[in-house]
């Protein structure tokens, strides 16, 4: 596992970043292939991983 200076986002921050509601952000975090990490009981995602996830899904849907 490697760490970087990349920003780590909460569910609320992902919802704001993607301009979706928190319920949809929670659903995204619960998807099988979503690259989230646990910090205690809280889920987080690195911003770069989120962007890569979105880009990969866009490529797969075209």
From TrEMBL:
InterPro entries: HTH_17. It comes from the Bacteria. Residues 8-57 form the Helix-turn-helix domain. This is Helix-turn-helix domain-containing protein. It comes from Clostridium neuense.
């Amino acid at each position: 596992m490697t760490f970087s200076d990349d920003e780590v986002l909460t569910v609320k921050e992902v919802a704001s970043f993607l301009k979706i509601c928190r319920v949809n952000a929670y659903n995204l975090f619960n998807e099988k292939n979503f690259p989230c990490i646990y910090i205690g009981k809280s889920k987080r995602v690195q911003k770069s991983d989120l962007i890569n996830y979105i880009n990969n899904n866009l490529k797969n849907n075209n």
